[in-house]
Structure formats: C-alpha cells, structure tokens
Automatic annotation (TrEMBL):
Residues 15-308 form the Luciferase-like domain. Keywords: Oxidoreductase. This is LLM class F420-dependent oxidoreductase. It comes from Cryptosporangium japonicum. The keyword Oxidoreductase applies. InterPro entries: F420-G6PD/mer (IPR050564), Luciferase-like_dom (IPR011251), Luciferase-like_sf (IPR036661). Pfam families: Bac_luciferase. It comes from the Bacteria.
Amino acid sequence: MKLGLRLNLYRSATLDVPLELVRRAEQLGYHSVWTAEAYGADALTPLAFLAAHTSRIALGTAVVQLAARPPATLAMQAMTIDALAGGNRLILGIGVSGPQIVEGWYGQPWGRPHQRLRDYVTIVRQVLDRSAPVVHSGPEISLPYAGPGALGQGTALRSILHPVAPIPIWLATGGPRNTALAAELADGWLPMGLGPSGVPPRLRGLEVFTGVTVQLTEDVGGTLDAMRPLTAMYVGGMGSATHNYHRDAMARRGFPEAAEVIGELWRAGRRAEAEAAVPVEYLEQTALLGSPDRIRRRWDAGFVPPGVTGVIVDARQTAAVELMAELVAC
C-alpha cells in the first residue's frame, strides 16, 4: 500500500504551500504528493515549486482539468516539471471537471466529454512518446487544426524537449464509459465514488489511489459535523440537477437517496438542512478520525476497499501524517 499526501491549495483564497509537511512525508517514505485545481490556484505550478524543495517524492495532479489547457500544453508542462524534478517523479492525473466550470470558467462547450477525454489523452501520449510528429483526427480535438478559422497552414510537430523519463497518465473517472476509458488508456485510476466492493476486475492491473481524511481529535462527532458543509456544497452545489459528479459519486458509494435529498435541499436554498442530511456513515467511509487507537482499529479492520494500491491522505497534522506512515509501514 502506497501513501500520498493531498494538498488542497486550490480551495484557499491565499496560497500557502505546507512545505515542511511535504518534506516530512518524503522523509517518512510517502510515495507522492498531490495537487488539484478548480477556479483558483492551478495544479501544476505548486509541483514545480515542490520539485525544487524535495528530492524523490512523486509529484501528482489529482487532478488537472481537461479544459484548462490544450493537450500539447499539458504535455509540455509535464515534461518541463519532470525535468526540473530530475525525472521519474511526475504523475499526470486528468479529469473532465463539469459543465459549470468548463463553460462558465474556461468558456468552452461541454460537448462530448467522453470522446474529448479520449482525444485529449491520445494527443498527450503522442507528445510525451515523441515517436513522431503529432497527428490526430478526432471528433472533439484534431491536430493539426483544420476547422473554422484555420488558414490551412498547421504543421504536425514533435516536441523539441525530450522527456527525461516516461510520464504516467492517470484518469479520474466515475461513470462507466470514462472508467472503461481509464482501463483502456491510462496507467492509473483515481476513482470518483469507489464503494466498499472495491476496484472492478478490469482495472485491477492499474495503480488505483483513493482519498482519506485523517485527523487526530478527541471530538469525532464535532469533526464529522465540521465536514458536512463542504460535503453538502459539493454534492448539492458543485453542479446542476442534471450534471453533478459529486452527487453521482455519493450514489455509487451506496447513498443514492441521500444524494438526491442533499441536491434538492441545496438547490432550494435550504443549505443547513442539506448539511444535516449528509450521512455520518458516508463521511466515515473516507475519514479516519479520533485517537490513534481508534484510527488504527478502523484501518486494521479493512478500511481500504479491495484492489486499491494507494491512499492519498488529506491531513494537516504532522502527527496524523506520521501515524499513517506507521500504519502502512512505509
């Protein structure tokens, strides 16, 4: 079992990278440190910073948003950061986000996200492989571009920069079509809504990392209550009545009725009721809270679903980061 450390920098109005916590995780043998993005801090720049201040911990994105940059740009940034880090350190975790961000923040059509993800990953792979000039003709993305407004002068190009090491591509997916795409095209899977039954057989050959919140506390109930607002906001507010992947993830983890209720209450402006509707059992599926003994008992009782190869720890306490290293015996 591998351990990663999650940095939730994208949620904050100010940028404060917990460098000493990352360095401690590296000392303890953590496999990786992970960043994300929404519509604040981006996922890649902090990894370049961490590359300069660490020596071996892998640098992962969970995730970069597909709409945030063209596929060739993502490949360029990945190769650049991995070169700065000395090679064999970057992991590209990619996700499609949702139509609210894709259309509202990036000004792009939602289109056909499944096909766009296929086109995107295929192009990124071609750039990273550097075996030939990049040519791809897809229903969502084509290179060279020859659509409306083109001069017809586009040239198939090969990256000037040579990657110093292979860069793995992981996909964050939840629905069946994109999850099948992860099994087909990816090196790793970041599941959205993995239930207790664990990883499907077709994905058992990949690296599969899930997330866990870890907090040492004497007030488990109060800590769970403090998690409700963010959970309700994601399940109820990070999407619409027709498109909300966090609501879908809650349903896949065994709580479809609660997901619907939270969504309805949130959209009706009844946010306190939406928060109260978040089941404690749902929160505890991905949280290890309490004393070291309580956390150890829950971990030893089979906390991680079958087939998972790593957990990404969301913790701000050095003692919690150290406890997880002890439990996993890094």
